[in-house]
Every structure is written in C-alpha cells, then in structure tokens.
Amino acid sequence: MRSSELMKRLGITREMLRYYEKEQLIAPSREEENGYRQYTQQDGFELLRIKDLQAHRLSIQEVRKSLTYQTLNMQQQQLLSIEQNLQEQIRSLTSQLSRIQRHRLFIEDSMAEEHKVTELNTYGIYKLMLLGEGVPDAPETKGIAAEWLQNMPFTEIGWTLPWPDTFDGQSLHAQIGLISMPHCAFERNLTTDSPVYFFPPGKSILVMVSTDDPFSVPAAAFSPLAEYARAHRYHVISDISGRYSGFDYRDGKKRYFFSARVLVKKIK
Predict the structure, then answer these.
(1) Model confidence over 117-168: pLDDT tens digits?
(2) How far apart are CA 208 and CA 240, in angstroms?
(3) 3-state secondary structure of 267
(4) Which of 4, 98, 208, 210 pairs as cysteine with 255 (C-beta 3.0–4.6 A)?
(5) Strand (E) positions, 101-215?
(6) DSSP label at residue 114
(7) For residues 108, 109, 112 and 116, what is the CA-based torsion angle, rounded to 10 degrees?
(8) pTM for this structure?
C-alpha cells in the first residue's frame, strides 16, 4: 500500500512516517516506475509496535533495540526498569507537590499573620549561607551551592541574623543562602559537609516580618519575639533563622517577607 493508505489506516502523519524511515525503524520499498514508497502489512505492524514502545517512554534508540532482537525475557526486564523509574518519578513529584503546597500555605501565613508570634516545636535544618556580611569565602562553596540550586524546591532561600542586644535604633546584618530540611537533604543526597551547618531542632517562637532591605533589617522588626519571650518567661538561645516567602508592595515600596524564628527554653 502507498503512504496515503497506510496513514489513513493507522491514523499517523506523513511526518511521522518520514521520521521513522530516517531513524531506520521502517524500510519501505519503492515502485520502479515512479519511486513512490510502498508499505506492506508487516510495515504497518512494525509501526504499531513502534507506537506501543514509545508509549512506554522508550527513546528511539531503545525502540530500535527492542524491534531488532529483544526476547520476551528482555522485554520484561526493560519494562521492569521503566516501571522502577516511573515509581521514582512519582515519589519525587509527590515530594515536590508537598513542598509546593507547604510553600503556598507559608505565603498565606506571610500575608495574614505579620507580627503575630507562633509557638511551635521545629525540626532542625541544614543551611548554606552564600551572601551577606561575614559569609566565609570557602572554595568548596561554589560546588555545593550549584548542587543545592539544582535541587530547588527541595532547597529554599533562607536567612540568618544575630539576636540583637537591643531593639532600638540598630540594624541587623543578614546572611542569605539556601536551606534544606533533613529528610529532603537525605532524599536528594545533598552535600551537608562544611560550610553547610545545622540549625538544631527545638522549641521555637516564630514571627513573619517584612523588610525593604533583606540584608539590613531593623532590630525593631523582631521586637514581637522579644516581647513574647519575656511574657512567657522564655530565654532566647539561638540566632534568628528563617526562610523567604515572597515580596509585595506596601506604600509604594517593595517589601520582602521572611519567617523569623529563635530557639527558646523556659526560665526556671
């Protein structure tokens, strides 16, 4: 049969036929008098096999190998490998969906709960500081940063600031970089050696803050944490740690929103 009849029977396009011929997956004969391509029933069957194999996400190279010499046992092993890869993709996408949902809720909190202090038990977190005053210029940072950036959103933008001695008239210099939950670092096999450090788990108090300069933040922005700690007889035992949630415009100025948490312990 000619190309037009085969395309009509199988519902495929001329471009597809030419592509498969170019990749040497099919080899139609030619009419002697005019050079028109001629396809047999076997060619049609091979085209069905090609589409079936591609539906299993095989590359053209894998399709070619399957068409030429794979036994039933080899096909079974190939499909098992594809199944395992798909299961891994499902796990990865499920984890990514969870991260995105959590980040969306985090943005909602930033919009609605600025200045409101929350008390919670927090997990530890890995931190890789990259920008800001006092960030060490370690030679290994570049490679780790590239690795962590490739794994967003399993890593996120984070910051750290010193806990102030006073909350009046001073600015705190922030360091900004990347953060990762321990289970994400393990799942993605992230490097956690120095200069990565671990912010420990524990009892925390948290507040959402906004600033027009993420690297220099008025200490007054953290006064709700200090007031809450005093009111509830907590002693602050860590620097300020948090993560970036997004930006908005307030009074014509761009404002960056971060969470800010500190570890606390009860004063006896």
Answers:
(1) 999 998 899 999 999 998 988 888 999 999 999 999 889 999 999 999 899 8
(2) 12
(3) coil
(4) 210
(5) 118-122, 125-132, 156-161, 171-173, 175-180, 197-199, 202-211
(6) B
(7) 180
(8) 0.66
